[in-house]
Fold this sequence. Notes:
CATH architecture of the largest domain: 3-Layer(aba) Sandwich
Distance between the termini: 36 Å
Number of strands: 13
CATH topology of the largest domain: D-Maltodextrin-Binding Protein, domain 2
Number of helices: 15
Mean pLDDT: 87
Radius of gyration: 22 Å
Strand content: 5-15%
Amino acid sequence: MKKKVLAMLMAGVLCVASLTACGGGKEDAASQGGDAQGSTQEAKDQGSEDGGQEAEGQEAQESALPDTLEDPNLVIVWNTTEEVWNQTLADNPSAFDLVWSTKAAFEEKYGGTVTVNGVAWGDQASTVIGMVNSGETCDLAEAHDQNFPVYGAKNIVQDISQYIDLNDDFWYDSVTDAFTYGGVHYAAGAAATPVVIAYNKTLFEQNGVKTPREYFAEGNWTWDTFREVAMSLTGDTDADGTNDVFGFGWWDSFYVQMLNANGTTHLNYGADGTISGNFQTTAAQETFSFLQDAYVTDKYMMIPDGDNFISAFKGGNLAMTCEYGFNALSVYECDYEIDWAPLPQGPSGQPYDCGGSLTGFAIPITSANPEGAAVFIRMAYELKQQNEQSALIEKYGQEDVDLMNELGQHINFAPIGIEKYWDANWTLFQGMINGTPVSTFTQTADEQIAEGAAITLGE
C-alpha cells in the first residue's frame, strides 16, 4: 500500500451523506495485523473525495509540476457551470473547486486557455460521449461511479498510465483500481471520502456502553462488538411489542458498506473485461447473513423507509448511523454529542477496510493535449490538498485527520454504471428484510447483474 502525503477534506461534489444514497468502494485490502485498528496515533489518511499520509508527518512532497508547457490549452467537461461557480465565489470568496479554481491557477502559470464545459452532474456522461463520438476535442472528464465501466468499455477514454506515473505515491491506489477495466487504468486521482460510523456519544455514555471509538482504540471494533453495542441500545420503550429505539440504521444500500468492510466489493470487474456480481462469494454470504440476522432476528437494525433514519438519529432513537467522512460530525444538528469511528471490521476483512465515495479524472480519446491534461490533474489535486489540509487539522485535529486519511487508502470501491444494478439492489434488500434464504436472493441478484452487464456491454 503506497503512502500518501496530505490529508483531504470530504468534498462537496460527492454525495452528501444522509441526503443522497451512494455506492461502495474498491481498493486493495490492507495487510496490517494485530491491533493495527487501534493505532490511531500512527499514520492514517484519507480524502472525499480519500487520501494518503506519511505516517508521522504532514510534510508535503515537492510539486511535480513542470515550469512550462508546450501546449497550455485544454477543454474540460465538468459538473459545475460557470454561473454556479461565480455565485459560489460571491457567497464565499475563499471557496475551492477542483476544476474552476485550478483553471485560474493553470492559466496564470502556463498561459493559454482552459475551456470548461460546465454541465449538470447527470449530464456529464452524455456530453463527453457525444463529444467523443463526434470527434470533438475533450481533454478531461470526471470519472465517477455511474459513468464507469462505460467510459472504458466503450473506448471513450484512454489508458491514463501513458501520461501519469501511477507508481508515484501521490496518486491514490483506491481511485486507480476503481476505474480499471479490462486490466487498463483509465483514471487517476488523489482524493476520496470513506464511509464511517456516526454515533450518539451522549446516548452511549448515559447507558454506560463502551463507544465504537473506544472499541476501535483497543483493536476490537468488529462485527461482534458492533452487534453487542447495537443490541444493548435497542429497545421497545412504549411496550407495544415493537422496537422504537434501534442500535443502527441507514440507507437500504448499507450492505455495500458492510461488504467493503469485509474486504470485498459488490461487483467484480475482471481483467478480461467481464463484469459479475460478487454476491455468492464467501465474504458476501457472511455479510448478507449477518445483516439479515440484524434486521430479522435480533432486530437492532432499523429497516429503512426512505430517509427515516435521519429523523430517528436526530431524535435520539438511533444510536448509530453512517456518514461520508467528517460529515459525520456536521450534518446532524442535535442536542447531544456526536462522535465517529471507522466501520467495524468484518470476519474476512482487514484493519481499515471500508467503503466510501471517490472520483478521478479521465482523458478522452479525442484529447488534443493529453500531456497538458495530466499536468492539470496533478495541479488540481495539489491545490486541493493545500487548500484543505490546514483547515481540516484545525477543525478536527491531527489524529482524526490522519485516521480518516488512512481509511481513504482502504476504500473498496466498484462503479455501478451498468444496467439492472438497481434491480439487483432491490432484490438484495428485500431478501434480507423478508428472511429469504441468503443463497436464494444472492443468486437472483447475481443473475440480474449478469443480464445488466450483457446489456451494458452490448453482448
